[in-house]
């Protein structure tokens, strides 16, 4: 999400401009986007959905999110890692999701990498939260919210994920993941949700 100016939603509260005039974005923006996440399945789901979004709009993916969850065993990566050609064929026939073989196979491939990551680091959360940028780094790399498509931390995380064998994890995709999962509070300064996210981040216990 890169639109910088805040905007007033139908309830007259100021929010990030990307959720303007899209009713289904409001609950996602107000209750999910930017709030810190330590659940491994949710982290894997979001990175997978960001991969599917490549070349598409988030509105398309969000509207299909429940169908994706049903199709991919609710993104239980231990189950997805065991998918074979039969599951790929099933997914390619599922009109409820984005039927792109390369992206489907990448999610299955990444599920196996997620299992490896969990074994190596104890949890996906422990690995990903190691890449949280410091306030000092954000002050120079992201002086104004919602003005960048990537930052140094997302470039570094992208490179490390690729080194570990993950696919569809470019720095822009990874930054969108970091924004959504709360590693960065990128709500607009005047956004009604920014303070709630800041409070949630302050209370959040970073996984180790």
What's the CATH topology label?
Endonuclease III, domain 1
Total DSSP helices:
12
The biggest beta sheet is recorded as: 2 strands, antiparallel
What percentage of residues falls in helices of 4 or more residues? 40-55%
Quick one: how many beta strands?
2
CATH architecture descriptor text: Orthogonal Bundle
- The structural class is mainly alpha
Are there runs of 5+ residues with pLDDT below 50, and where?
A: none
What does this structure look like?
- This protein has 208 residues and is mainly α.
- It has one domain: Hypothetical protein, domain 2 (Endonuclease III, domain 1), CATH 1.10.340.
- The protein has a two-stranded antiparallel ribbon with strand order 1-2.
- Strand 1 and strand 2 form a beta hairpin.
- Helix 2 runs antiparallel to helix 7.
- It is globular and about 50 Å long.
- One of its GO terms (biological process) is base-excision repair.
- This is 3-methyladenine DNA glycosylase.
- Keywords: Metal-binding, Zinc.
- It comes from Comamonas serinivorans.
- Pfam families: Adenine_glyco (PF03352).
């Amino acid at each position: 999400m890169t639109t910088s100016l805040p905007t007033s939603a139908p309830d007259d509260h100021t929010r990030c401009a990307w959720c303007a005039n899209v009713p289904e974005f409001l609950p996602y923006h107000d209750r999910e986007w930017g709030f810190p996440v330590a659940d491994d399945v949710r982290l894997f789901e979001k990175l997978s959905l960001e991969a599917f979004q490549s070349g598409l709009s988030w509105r398309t993916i969000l509207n299909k999110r429940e169908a994706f969850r049903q199709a991919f065993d609710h993104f239980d990566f231990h189950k997805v890692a065991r998918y074979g050609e039969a599951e790929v064929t099933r997914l390619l026939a599922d009109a409820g999701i984005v039927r792109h073989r390369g992206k489907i196979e990448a999610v299955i491939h990444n599920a196996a990498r997620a299992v490896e990551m969990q074994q190596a680091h104890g949890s996906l959360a422990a690995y990903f939260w190691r890449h949280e940028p410091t306030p000092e780094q954000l002050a120079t790399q992201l002086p104004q919210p919602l003005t960048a498509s990537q930052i140094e931390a997302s470039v570094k995380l992208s490179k490390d994920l690729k080194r570990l064998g993950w696919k569809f994890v470019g720095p822009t995709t990874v930054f969108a993941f970091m924004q959504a999962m709360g590693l960065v509070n990128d709500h607009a300064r005047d956004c009604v949700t920014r303070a709630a996210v800041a409070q949630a981040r302050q209370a959040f216990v970073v996984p180790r």
